[in-house]
């Protein structure tokens, strides 16, 4: 029989967060081994339950949810997203500019697909949340990675961005707050990005899904709030801020100068119609979430569970010889660096395999986030304090052995 092959479109697509190392971890679990998982930002799996009012709201609305809705989504939740954009000072957003989706992921793929022709380039951060690179490749475009500078708390290197723009560059992706680095960009950096987008007529794709997961009293500025003359698409949703990953509920907001983008917006509308609509109980939950008690605030405040876990994970990691790590200001992740002399890693996927096999700790290798060098890995600090402490001890022990090889 002829082998059935995956499409060539997938040749350049990579999504290692759920890649081969996770497969190996699953097999180990099937054999009865307990793995400490530092690999995925799935809050509910670590006892960060969704706010009760959201769950109750979804249950209450279940009976009204069996039909399709307008393909952009129900009016009331879109209206609440509109109010949210006003709170975030994003000007000129009407209900028509808001699309609800099955998580931000669906909308990211849609927004990129609606834009790109083969040969088009999109500036994507390195490291990035790899869905962005994958979505650009799947859409036939070319991801061009710009450097986020670890020495500057992982902020985008504006000169590098400028260097990488050419006549094929269509858009720039900005992930702020950032996965995987936990960076939160200063307003001046955001303003510089907007200026570059303005000068080169780039669409700005602003992924702001962690905009309420902020530590140390930090505040978040939406990129789209800084310009009404640049086309921005802002992505957000319930997964992280409201601990509701499984409800698959997100939105995107088109703002800024839209007159010249009518054709693109028509493309967005077409793709939105083709998937009919987002899951309806998830749509209902948006209004309750945005208008309800913002319980994430308690978790990120000093002494809150997330803040304590961030502090502990950061301290224990950076106590290990040859490990440095920018302390995250936001989100759920850190992206430590291993000293290349002490840990001469050629293949960081192999490194992740070995850590898993020897110590039963699951991390994701840095190259899975399009980090150019194999000397980083991502840690999720969601497990409870005891498990985190245990995991960091095991990583320390593994690295100790690695140094002595
Ligand atoms: N954007 C970033 C930066 C993320 O980290 C994630 C999920 O981890 C997503 C988007 C996808 O979110 P959703 O669950 O809304 O699809």
UniProtKB/TrEMBL annotation:
- Cofactor needs: pyridoxal 5'-phosphate
Q: Which domain of life is it from?
A: Bacteria
Lineage, top ranks: Bacteria, Pseudomonadati, Pseudomonadota, Betaproteobacteria, Burkholderiales
Q: Which family does it belong to?
A: Belongs to the class-I pyridoxal-phosphate-dependent aminotransferase family.
The record's EC number reads: 2.6.1.2
* Aminotransferase class I/classII large domain span: 35-386
Record keywords: Ribosomal protein included?
Answer: no
Looking at the keywords, is Hydrolase present? no
One molecular function GO term is: L-alanine:2-oxoglutarate aminotransferase activity
* Annotated protein name in UniProt: alanine transaminase
